[in-house]
Each structure stands twice: as C-alpha cells, then as structure tokens.
Design brief:
The structure holds two protein chains of two kinds. Chain A is mainly α. Chain A is built from twelve helices and two strands. The chains are: A mainly alpha, B alpha/beta.
Chain lengths: 289, 407
Amino acid sequence: MDFVAVLAIEFLGSIAILVLISIGLAVVFGMMKVINMAHGEFLMLGGYVAIYGTNWAGLNFWVSSLVVAPLVVGAVGMGLEWLVVRHLYGRMIDTMLATWGISLALVGAMTMLVGNTTQGLSTPLPSLQIGAYSASGYVLYLIVLAGLVVALLYALFKRTTFGLLARATTQNADMVAALGGNPRRIYASTFGLGAALAGLGGAALAPMTGVIPTIGASYIAKAFITVISGGGAVIAGNLSASVLYGVVSQVFTYLYTPVIGQVALLVAAMVLIRFLPKGITGRFFKRSI
Amino acid sequence: MTMTRRHVLGAFGAAGLSTLASPLLAKTRPITISALYDLSGGLEVYGQPIVDTLKFAVAQQNEKGGLLGREIDLKVYDPQSNMQLYSQFARQAALADAPDVVFAGITSSSREVVRPILRQFNRLYFYANQYEGGVCDRNMFATGVTPGQTVDKLVEYSLRNFGKKVYIVAADYNYGQIVADWVRKYTQQGGGEVLEVEFFPLDVTDFKTSISKIQSARPDYVWSALVGGAHISFYRQWQAAGMHGKIPLSSTTFAGGNEHVVLTPEECNGFMVCQNYLQELATPENARFVEAFHKMYGADYPYITELGMGAYQGFLLWAAAVEKAGSAERMPVIEALETGLSLAAPSGQVTIDPQTHHTIMDVHIARVENGGLIPVQTFAQQAPVDTAVSCNLREHPGDTQQYVVKF
C-alpha cells in the first residue's frame, strides 16, 4: 500500500513536470501559432534566475522561483517579441528559424555570463515518510504547483478581459482591431505570458536537476511533443497530453529502464500523431480552452 | 629555407625577441601538446579541472625552461561532450598542430573515438582518466586508475562495513556497463549479492522511479557509477527522497567531477569513494603542489580532482621520458616510458608498467566530508591487475584491443 502511494506520487510528479515544461510553449503555440524554439532557453533562464536569486542575491527560494523568475523571463520574452517575433507573425517557418537563432544566442550569452558548469540548488523541502518508504517532498510541491498554474491560467483565459481578448485575437485579429482592441499589445503580452510560464517552470525544476546553459535542449523535445499532441486547446490539450505521456513513460521506466521509458514516450507520440494529426483536442474536448 | 627565414627574423625581430623571457626558447619550434577535453556540454565538470591542471603543468615546466631547451605549447580543443567533434578535432589536432603528444578524452566512448585516429597518424596518446581498464595499445599510456586498483578495494570495504546486498546504478555506455560487471565480479568473489543493475543515459536527470525501486529492493548499500553533470541530480533527489544516511553509497566516480563540492554537505557527507589522489593527502610533494596550484588559480579553487591529477602525473611522466630520451619523437619517448619510468608525484610514487602501459600507484579509500575527502585507508603501489590479465605489450606490441571482463 505504501508503495502504491509512492508510485502514485511519482506518476503525478512526472505529469506535473511535463505540464511545467510545456505549458508556456502551449500558450505561445496554441494561441499565436508561433513555433518558439527558444522555449527551452526560457526554461534555462528561469532556472538561473532562481539559482542566482537564491544563492547570490540572498532571496528566499520561493520568492526567487515563484516571483522573480517569471517576471524576469517574461520581460525577456516581451523584449524579444518586440525585437524579433512581432515582425514575423503569420510566417510560421520564419518564426521557427528566428526563435532558433534566439535560442542559440541565449545559450551563448549565458555561457559567457555564468560559465558552462552545472549549477544547482539544494532541494528546499524535506522528504516525506510514507510507511516504510520515503518520497521527495519537493515532487509533491511540483504537483501542487502544476495544478495551481493550470487553474490560474484557466481562470485568466475564462474570467478576465485579457483572456477574452486573447482568445478572440487568436480567432480573428482583424475583428478585434475593428472592435477597438489592440492585437499588437495582446500578442506581446501573450508571448510574455508564455515566457513567464517557462521561467516559472524552469525555476521550479532547477533544484531537481541543476542548470547548465545547454539544458534547454533536453526539455525542448518533450515540450514540443506534449504541445503538438495536445492540439489546439491550450489547457485541455496540454493536460491530456501530459497525463498520457507521463503515465506511459513512468510505466515503462518502472517496468524496464529509463531508456525504455523514453522510447515508449516517443513511440506513443508517433502513434498518436498518426491517428490524431490535429492532436488530442482536435478530436476530443473540442470546445475547451 | 627555415635557416634563411630564421636569419631574416633574427635581423628584423631582434627587438621583439629580446622582450621574451628566454630568446633561446623562441628560436626552436616549440614542443606541442594537443589537449581535447570537454569544456562544455555536460561533461565539463570533469574537463575543466583537467585542463586547468594541464595548463598549470605546462606553465610550471616552461618556467623551468621548457623541455630540452624548447618551450612547450599547449593547444586546447573543446569537443563539447560530442563524439563527432572528438573525431573531427582529433584529426584536426593530429594534422594541423603536429603535436608531440596528445592528452585527450574523458569518457571511454571519447577515448575509443580518439585512439584509432591518433594511432593512424602516429601521435603519442595519453589517456589520463580513471576508466574500466583493458585497453592494450602501445601508442597509448593510461595514467588513471582501473577497477582492479580501486573497485575491488571499495567493494571489499563496503561488503565488510555495510552488508552483502548491493544495488548498482550506472551510466549507460561502455564505462558504466563494464564497471558494473567488475562490481558484480568482486561482489560475488566477496560472497555478496547484486540485487539489480540500472543504467542511465548521460542526459537523464529524473531518478524518482529508480529511487523508489531501490527502496523496495532494500539493499545494504548502493554502488554508483553515474557520470557527468546530469547525473548529479541522482544524489540531490536521493537526499530529497530522504534516502541519504539511510542506505550508504559507494562510488569510484563520485567526486571525480567535484560532485562533493557542487552538492551541499547534507547531500553527500558519508559517501565512500576510492581514488588515486585526494587533495588532502599529507605528503610534502602534495603540499608543495597544492600551494603552487593555488598560487596560480587562487586559494578558493574548488578542488583538485583525481582526473586533474591523472593529467598532471601523465604530463610529468611524459616530460621525464622526453628528457630521458633526449627527444620528443614518438618512438624514443615510448621506449623511455617502457623502461618502467617512475617518479614521485603529489599522489605518491607513480610508475609506468611496461607490460600494459598503465600506471602503478597508490589508492585511497576516503569518506566525503564537508566538501573534502577524508582518507580512511591507503593501499600502496597497486598494479593494474585487471588489464595485466589479458594485455602484454612486451610480447604483442601490435595489440590494439580493449579486453573486457568475462564471467
């Protein structure tokens, strides 16, 4: 029984991690159809802000990871949107190339600034005793955090004027402009929101894995697979794909090895995209956000 | 041609030359060392200390007037933890630098990429890392420890102090696989039992599942042959899951990449390691070395790792061989090393074993404590017994195989 509880925490933990690394990308891709190749680097930046905020600036870990990291990375995201991305809306391949360039530049810049040694933080929460087993308290925190992020994002899109405008702009930007909205500003803030969510995710994962300028590469594939498989609906798609892949990879990791777990995730993604080319929400939960 | 150019240079550049510390050194072609070590991309935790130590060794030698009156020129390449770049840079170094010796490779995979290339171009090769043993190649000298020197000592110590049941976690490439086999072999010899072996690719950072698998297997201790920056997550998650201190951990890779400095004391105090070199060694040679090293890099230098020392003593042995041979040419240097060259390094006496081209040296079992390694037990002058079983370069100088342990 204890073991089942420990396993359940791990399954939920894997799902939560997938949500945290991909939700920012889902916002940017799902709402704006911008393929943001620099998403992994936004995660990396979030991790560095958390580490330097805590170890160097002496901030409380929770402040630096939950407040400072999203703000800083969100600002960076909006800056890059203004500099580069806004000129390329509607040109999907071009945004991909441009953001890839941004990602290379960010890796280079961070390597120059902080060096290329893996840096880390100690996990800030004690472990959890469940019967004869102990589990990581921090994983439990990640599960709660992912849940909160999803709930708040849902509220933002569903209950606020910004959410309404953002959803309207993705459907018909010209109409929004005709009705007095400002699509330019909405795009900028949506991109900033996606970046801020990436910053939050990266900061939350930093104590688990350590951060190095090239760490984005190890997140980006999973993030894209999750977002593409999820389909058009940002939240429902992201959640359903995260659950599916989290469970698949954990089951195979548990039964066999982590390598097989990764392979299983990729095979599941290939099969899914073959039969649901528009992602899970292209077929199911169509009317959700 | 070179003579005339030299004369012209001498006439026009006398002012320039006189500013050099020793005009004599500048007149001859420098002795060239190419170094290929990952300074980025995940294995940089190992590469950076090695390159620092090599630079220190070269600077120290140049201060003494170089070798054979020639300056030493160190050319460093960063293959970025990428095997393709290893192959590319090894060729580039061998052809463009025309190096007298090459120091290269951290992982066994990178060594196996570089080794045939350097052999093909007749470039003497020093592999300075601890590894799984068994490489038999007259063109290569290994100045790091092998499992026959460390793993057997630490397995025996762990069986005696922790218990008979071990759970192995290892990196998923030739090093991790072969070392896991050695741990299994020594455990069985010592009457112990291997409960499970798990392999992780070098970029895996999520160890949650394995940690609960370890908990349900209830081993007496865990053996870690994890490697690189990503795998540091294991120790962090081990602590986060509350396992640190509940199940002891032994490793011959831990601390090789300064893990004990990167992690906090709460995360790794009490881990047991077995290495050829500890910065804490209380010998006059080591005290002098550490002092000089800190003078160059500052007293706050994180830790001089065993891998750094492997490169340092490799350099010392090579330099001694060059002096003995009176030449930096490949074959005379190999023959000089094959005389059983021996010297006192900061890690203790180091001697080239002519039969295997490996190194006879001291090893120490040590306990991780507050960012340092506290020596617990010392084994003097250990020969590379694992490699010696199958490798005899005196009888088969043309051998180029890597032999692996068989059951």
